[in-house]
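Cont'd.
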Amino acid sequence: MKIENVVEDVAFRLLQLAVVELPKDVKDALKQAYQKEESEAGKTQLEAILKNIELAEKTSTPVCQDTGVIIFYVKAGAEVKGLDKIEPALRKATVRATKEVPLRPNAVDPFTQKNSGDNTGNYIPFVNWEIVPGSAIEITVMPKGGGSENVCALGMIPPGEGIRGLKKFVVDAIVKAGAQPCPPNILGVAAGGGADIAMKLAKAALLRPLNKPNANPELARLEKELLEATNMTGIGPMGLGGRFTVLGVNVDYAFRHPASYPVAVAFQCWAARRATARIHSDGRVEYLTHKGVK
Amino acid sequence: MATYKLKTPISEADVRKLKVNDVIYISGIIFTARDQAHRRALELHKEGEKPPIDMTGLVVFHCGPIVKKEDDKWIVVAAGPTTSTRMDLFEDEFIKNFKVRVVIGKGGMGKKTTDAMKQYGAVYGAFTGGAAVLAAKTVKNVKSVEWFDLGMPEALWILEVEDFGPLTVAIDAHGNNLFEDVQKKVEMNKGKIYQKLGV
């Protein structure tokens, strides 16, 4: 097998799966929200969301017209030969998916305002690399919508305020975002590292399933506290008022400089699209987020 | 809360009777316009020229759809609303100059737009963000596409729709704004949250 062909095919399939069918944990959380939502306007919104999810699956259509900027996360086994061929294959898959799924062309030159038409451009699709032991390649795609991206927030808070400052920053970010990021949202929150590192960790934290608690019990407690706090805002589904503003909060961190306390909040809309597959060295492909896919 | 079915061209009297929280469905002609299309339409108007369609009584939809061509015919695949606040920059002038009666989008709009809706007679219909397949299902025909040079999401797509909705009237032609009401409550709740978190 040629690594570039396998990667291209798998990445194409992942893009298609991601934009059409939301992961089960997200669907379950939305269903639960619909059952428990008390605001009438909020319930109407959740009902439309669930209907839309069902219709998208039935007709193999992207669940939202904003199929996002395409972001890949690659965990490459150190023993894999031909790692340099992966990125071009991911680009090819993106171009193909844009035409065939189809995806909305969302890559625009910030200086000429020209849309490339195929979802590729300088640094786009963006690929996050991680080298891991072994001989498998794990590819995750996150098509990231613009509405939720526009309210992502980065704060360089005074280290003296510490975790209290972090909590306040998260609450302020969600209040400021209001209806814009298509709530109910998932929040990725990260502290430390540096400005870029915090935001990168916050965004990657969005990939953790909603039913998987943080491995660190203290952070798991913080996640629960932030979830309850952000849902007290009353913003509600699509900002029309209600109990469900946030479906889950995922926290990650890096150690920080003594003088800095970066806090990043990455917003994900209810259409929390992600898909992951593992390519084994014998060519076998396992789809991890979408069970039953061959 | 009442439910209304509206047909384009929509008159000023039609929208004046609507109140926030009402639900509306629209049949007839709606056209998509985002940041770039709003800007271009207003620039043309300033130069004394006309945009490619007469927008009087029509519906502007904040949306960048996914559209595909099959046998030389455009088909709307997915068409949910985009965040409307970006169009606050243009919408008051847009309503004043082009006499659109309904603005569809998500997330609501600000005071300038609310004032223009009150003054000239227009409403804002909130459609569920991301509910792109539900929206596309109501599109019966793509009448034409203008300004395709702006790219697929930003072009002006002129669509024939049937019972497009449900749209919640979130800004009416009397100065009421549902999103602002929620935002005020949220600001009040913020103090309680700070207290609970001890911040």
